[in-house]
Amino acid sequence: MEYFDNNGLTASNDYKRPDILSSTAKYRTSLVRHPDLWFVDGSVILQADTTGFRVHTSILSLHSTFFRDLFSLPGPTDPSSSRIGVNMNEELDGCPLVVLHDSPDDLANLLKALYYAGPDFGDNDEQDFCVVSGILRLSSKYLIDSLREKSLGHLQKAWPPTLAGWDAREDRARSYESDSVQLYPSPIAVINLAREVNAPTLLPAAFYDLSRHPFSKIFESPHSLSLPDLQKLALGKEAAQHTVTALIQSLGSSPPPTSPPPSFNMHRRKHSGSRICLSAAACRKDFGELVDLATQHYLMDRERGHADPLYVAEELGQLKSVEFSECEACAKSLEMWAARERERIWNLIPLWFRLELSGSMGRASRPLTLTM
Length: 372
Prior knowledge:
alpha/beta; 15 helices; disordered N terminus; BTB domain-containing protein; SKP1/BTB/POZ_sf; BTB/POZ_dom
């Protein structure tokens, strides 16, 4: 069995070079033509397992650096062809036959995306993930940059690099909620895929999502993490739980702002009344009650969201809503505090899970003080 060496081929630094074999008779005996990807004018036959795809070298070369280099190798009669480990002497229906060690379904989805102005992705559910993950693997493997970028862009809708993207993702997930339906695939599968194809931008959201699950569910999953990633998960999960406690404590740690002098106070009341707390004692009591409720709900009863600091911060920010609060100033202050805390938490997620990323995520940030 002969494999390509490093001579004459372009290989990705971030992805393992694929194994491609020259064809032999045993690979031709049980070949099944793919019903949609067997073109009578095709110039090369790709084989994955027992499925054959008769396609065009021009199409593959146009999109794939790897195949462009492959098809530009010396012909079978050139002595240098044996030096680089390629034998194109075997043919089927007058076309060279190249055997690929890939899933037939993944290869079919990749080729359909190339031929039919695709890819035609779905809504990031588990079935869609099977399609997009296969395309991402093979587009990375065969250096098809356009499809890799599209696949990553689609996955980032479910595993986004921004807080705004995360909030949109969670809104969609809540619309699908039921006892038997889960919109998104296992975050473990996403983490493993990101490691396989060198896509670190998917990792913070996937690790954070996974940290919200109890360890019993994580260990009973059909998917499994590598030991290093399991250690990162444990560290991040602990940091997230500490953050929930810190959020609740900070909610009641700062008193409402001191009321201004009488003349200024009257002016503010008349024109806006929205920036100064006019009832400090009542607001202290309200916030104390909110802290007690949050402590009971998230820390004692461990109800929904207890392992999700982004969710907790959002909920805390809405506890004293402007619409129903007698003190608009404190309500707005609480909303602004929650928004700032959520941004700070989002930026800390890569640090919690010991992920190395560039960009805004992962910047150290000190805790914010609630000013009321």
